[in-house]
Amino acid sequence: MDATPVWFMRQAGRYLPEYRALRDKHSLLELCHTPDLAAHVTLQPIRRFAVDAAILFADILLPFEPLGLGLSFAAGEGPRIARPIRDAAAVRALPILEPEESLGYVLEAARLVARELPPHVPLVGFAGAPFTLASYAIEGGASKTFTRTKTFMYQTPEAWHLLLDRFADFTGRYLAAQARAGARALQLFDSWVGCLSPADYRRYVLPHSRKALSLAAAADVPVIHFGTGTGPFLEDFAGAGGDVVGIDWRIPLDAAWGRLRNGQGIQGNLDPAALLAPREVLRRQVREVLDRAGGRSGHVFNLGHGVVPETSPDAVAFVVEQVHGG
After folding, report:
1. Domain tally for the chain?
2. Cα 235 from chain centroid?
3. What percentage of the chain exceeds 70 in pLDDT?
4. Beta partners for 186?
5. Segment 145-154, tens digit of pLDDT
6. Least C-beta-crowded within 10 Å: which of 125, 133, 135, 181?
7. In a domain, 119, yes or no
8. CA gap 96, 103 in Å, rounded
9. Farthest-apart Cα atoms in the chain, separation
10. Phi, psi dihedral angles at 68 (to 5 degrees)
11. Contact 304/249 with Cβ under 8 angstroms?
12. Is residue 284 flagged as an active site residue?
C-alpha cells in the first residue's frame, strides 16, 4: 500500500460508545464467550475508522478458564485469579489444553470476522506471551512490583521453566489455530516483560518466547512480537523471533529499528496518552513517529500500548487521517 498501515491495540473497546452500550448488557467474559458478539465488537472500529487491520476481540487471560485458575473481572479493578499458581505442585497439575476444544469460541469469532472483513483489511489474532501469562497466574491479578513472580522464578527455577514451557506450547499452538481460523497476522503480547533485567530475560524468559513464536510462525502468516519496557534488552527480545517487533514509546523508533539485526519490521510507537492531547500536539507527535520511520518499508504505525478508555474516537480518526496523509 502507498501509505503507512495503521491500527491500534485495544481499538475495539471501552473508548467507543457503541462498545459501552454492549457492556451495559453483557460482561466482558460474556462478550468473549459469545462468538457473534465478539465478532461484532471486533468489527465496530472497522466500521467507524479507516484502520488497516482488525484486532480480534478477546482477552489474553482466557486460557486461565480451562486451566482451572478461576478467571473473573472486577469492575474498575481488572482481572482476578481465584486459584493462583504458588508452588510446583500447582504447575504440575495444570492440564494440557487443545486450543480448538478449550477456546473454540475465540476461533469461531475469528471465522465470523474473517468472513465479514473487506479483502484489504486483515484480521490480527493474538495471545499472551509466556512471561506475561505467568505473572498474572502467580500474582493472582495485575501487579506493579511482580514480587511474587520474581520470587517464584528465583526460588523454584525448575517449576518456573516448566510453567513457562507449558504456556509457550499452548500459546504457540493457539496462535496457529487462530491463523487457521482466518487471522492473517498474529501478535504475541508480552505486556509486563519490561519489569525484568536483561540477564533475567535471557535466562528465564527468552527460550520460552522463542518456542511460542516458533510454533506460531509455522502458521505461515506474519507474527508481531510486542513488549513494553524492552529498551534495555531489545536485541534479545527481537532475537526471540517475530517478523515485526512492537515497541513502546520509551525508545525512539529509529533508535530501536537500528538495533534490530534480523531484517525485522517495526510496529509503534505513539504514547497512548498522546491521544488525549490537543490536536496540534497530537499532530506533532504523530509526525515525529513517521519522521523517525523515514518512510522505510516494514513500519506499522501503532500505539506503544492499548487505547486508554478516556480517548475520544475523534482523536483515533484524526491519527488515522494523519498517518494515511503521510
Report:
1. 1
2. 19
3. 99
4. 125, 223
5. 999 999 999 9
6. 181
7. yes
8. 13
9. 56
10. 80, 20
11. yes
12. no
Return the sign of the alpha-carbon dihedral for residues 152, 155, 156, 161. Answer: positive
Please tell me which residue in 10, 173, 210, 292 is annotated as part of the active site.
10
Residue 150 lies in a domain: yes
Q: What per-residue confidence (pLDDT) applies to 319?
A: 98
Torsion of CA 58, 61, 66, 68, to 10 degrees: -150
**Domain with 96 in it:** 17-324
Nearest alpha-carbon partner for 319 in 279, 291, 273: 279
CB atoms within 10 A of CB 262: 11
Per the structure block, which three cell numbers stand in for 68? 482451572
Helices 157-180 and 147-155: crossing angle, nearest 10°? 110
Is 136 assigned a catalytic role? yes
All three cell numbers of 156: 523454584
Calculate the average pLDDT of the chain: 96
11 lies in a domain? no
Selected catalytic residue, list 15, 19, 52, 59: 59
pLDDT at 74: 80
CA of 79: how far to CAs of 48, 56, 67, 97, in Å?
28, 19, 15, 21
Among the options 14, 83, 148, 202, which is catalytic?
A: 14
48 assigned to active site: no
- The pLDDT tens digits for 86-129 are 999 999 999 999 999 999 999 999 999 999 999 999 999 999 99
For residues 178 and 110, the answer to whether their CB atoms sit within 8 Å is yes
- 105 counts as catalytic: no
Per-residue buried b or exposed e for 113-132, using 16+ beta carbons within 10 Å of the residue's own CB: bbebbeeebbbbbbbbbbbb
Residue 292 to residue 295: CA distance in whole angstroms: 8
Torsion of CA 246, 251, 256, 257, to 10 degrees: 70
CA distance 64 to 170: 11
CATH number at residue 306: 3.20.20.210
- Using an 8 Å Cβ cutoff, are 266 and 244 in contact? yes
183 within domain boundaries: yes
